[in-house]
Amino acid sequence: MRDERGEMIQNAHLLGFFRRIVRLLCNRIRPVFVFDGDTPVLKRQTVAARRRQRAQADVKLKRVAEKLLLNNVRAHMQVRPQAASQRCARTQTLNLWACSLVCRAPQAGRPLARAPEQQAAVRMAVRARAAPRP
Fold it and tell me: Which of 15, 26, 61, 67 keeps 20 to 30 A from 3, CA to CA?
């Protein structure tokens, strides 16, 4: 199927299927849809491969987040060695923030679900990053 400019329409197979159903209904024919049988082997293999890739990506994400956090903390400790107590508080806040991002990363489009103390830690981390440094 093509549009008025001659370009291919996205999801044309669904539109064609829908139009055919509408045509049948207009002619007072009630279509019957039968979904029968198991999932094809190829689809099962594809779904399993995607699950493995997703799991590997999650592990990789955790490693990268840990490395970024460590690099950020190291750089911060080298730049301002005189403010030890502030640095410790910020490190703990960043650690909580990174942990909440890594441990509760959204999966399959679900939003982040954080506990109230994690939400507070994330807010503190954002404020700390936004605050001007002396």
Answer: 26
